[in-house]
Amino acid sequence: MLRGMKRGWLVGLPVISSRTGKKMGVVADIIFKPGQQKIKGLLVSSEGFVERKKHIPLERVRTIGRHAVIVDEPLQNDGQAGGLPIEGNEEYGNRILGRQLLRGDGQELGLISDIILDPNDGRIEGFEISRGLIDDLLEGRYILPYDASNSISEDAVIVSMEQTQQIKAYNRGIKALLDIK
């Protein structure tokens, strides 16, 4: 079973400077590059009259905790030199949510409802899969361990037939709670 942290739990956590102890903003999203095992960094939204977003490279993230993210300064705004530039094939985590998960033969396995990360090193552990509201309530959601060789496109994520055998139940639905077979 994966022991990581959901992307959804990470979003909204305060980002604290390790040098000053001051809150710099909140996590708005993760930044990842399809085909790589680790995230590239975090997108942080700073609070104030005008919202500004900063890209924090993973190397500057000291700790991802349950209640806050601690980062090393200095950080740069998006447009300034030294920030983490977003290249054409990188994505924010929220853009992958809701994409179809398809098996190599075209069979739909569900929709990606979240991304599971290892908070210690930023490694993507897997995708949480939703098979629809009724199935989620009755049977719970599922986890597919992440494979960097998966094909991630604008509309879908395509996984191999062998990888689908690694899909595991993630949380218990009503059937499991009531012990209904």
Number of domains: 2
Determine the number of helices (DSSP H or I, runs of at least 4 residues). Answer: 4
Uncertain ranges: 75-82
What is the residue-mean pLDDT, rounded to a whole number? Answer: 82
Task: Assign the CATH superfamily of the largest domain.
Answer: PRC-barrel domain
At CATH level 2, the architecture of the largest domain is Roll
Give an overview in words.
The chain has helices at residues 7-10, 133-139, 161-164, 174-178; strands at residues 5-6, 14-17, 23-32, 39-46, 52-57, 61-64, 69-71, 91-92, 100-103, 108-117, 124-130, 142-145, 151-152, 156-159, 168-169. The protein is mainly beta. It folds into 2 domains: 5-92, PRC-barrel domain (SH3 type barrels, Roll); 95-178, PRC-barrel domain (SH3 type barrels), CATH 2.30.30.240. Strands 1, 9, 10, 11, 12, 13, 14 and 15 form an 8-stranded mixed beta sheet that branches. A hairpin with a 4-residue loop joins strand 9 and strand 10. It is globular. It starts with a strand and ends with a helix. The model is unreliable at 75-82 (pLDDT under 50).
Short description:
With 181 residues, this protein is mainly beta.
